[in-house]
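lol ok so funny story. i was supposed to be doing the assay writeup but got distracted and ended up predicting the structure for this chain instead. priorities right. anyway since i did it might as well share w the group, maybe its usefull for someone
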Amino acid sequence: MSTGPAETVTTAIRSALGDDVQVTVQEFSSGALAITIRRGERTAMIDARSPSEWAVSVEPSESEAFTGHDHTASSLAEVVDIVRREWSPR
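and the output, tada:
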């Protein structure tokens, strides 16, 4: 049995960020994905239109929830790097 996009994305995110993250993936008939990653009180929201079109917002406020994403990327790996960097202690 092959894995679908949701399972592939979840596995990749947990591999990169750790098994303690909660990952929710919603798949749409168009192939687009809506992904939410949570670790404790931290949240990242990711949308993917294709394998090379990704957008992510890390810790979006309620007032920014529908204003578009903070970052764009060309791969899941790049999106995960953005989340990791934003979640790192400063």
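The helical segments are 5-17, 76-87. The two ends are 43 Å apart (CA to CA).
back to the writeup now i swear
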